[in-house]
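Workshop exercise sheet. Pairs work together: one partner reads the sequence aloud, the other fills in the structure field after running the prediction. Swap roles for the next sheet.
Pair: D.N. / O.F.
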Amino acid sequence: MKARSLLSLLALLLALFLANSALYIVMETERAVLLRFGEVVNPDIKPGLHVKIPFVNNVRRFDARVLTVDAQPERFLTLEKKAVVVDSYAKWKVSDVAKYYTATSGDESRANALLSQRINNGLRNEVGVRTLHEVVSGERDQLMTQLTAKLNEVARNELGVDVVDVRVKQIDLPPAVSESVFRRMNAEREKEARELRSQGRELAEGIRAAADREVTIIKANAYREAELVRGEGDARATATYAEAFNRDQEFYSFTRSLRAYRNAFQSKDDVMLLGPESDFFHYLKNSEAGN
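Structure field:
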């Protein structure tokens, strides 16, 4: 009885071991190949539960998601033979599982290294036929589009992967070149600043001259109008005085004499020497002078 139970337990363990060795699962985010003694017998296993022959077949799984390869910055020469340091990266995913396994042995780091090498070769070719301005800004998008298309074709044929996108993170100049470029840019900016300041001063002088001319015109017009008003007032005052004088000449003379007396004796220190027969005190000596 005990021997039968032990055999049953061993049989159960053996069955579990064989089931574990024979059954395998491929996830939705994975691609897999089935190998028989190292030879590919099923190049693209679909996601799901599958059965294999234990100890004969082997399954290699690979990440089916979009992966990123960060290429090392490399120095390239432009069309004018100017050196630039380009830092780039690419997005890729496995398309042909069998070819990918054959080219890289399923090693993702090896795939990244091979892709990095091809990215740098492609960048070297694309940068070499463009000027520095075109590489930096003018044709940068076009460069990336063409490089992605060419690299995708090469990578699909050689590595069994699709290159989704290639992008440049940064483009730098070598230190020696950067210093000369900086000096030239600084000189250009200073020249532009001087031209702008000169234009500003010229514009300011024009505005100031126009304002001064406008002030002069306004003052001249105001002075002319003031003189006209003053002349009209003087004429009206003279007419009024003449009319008043004509109405009563004696009273007018009397009021003028009183005003003269008041102005002459405003201060106690004033001294006036007059002859006895002077007309200055005419109305003081004779209250009926006007009669």
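Discussion prompt: The longest helix spans residues 175-247. What would you look at next?
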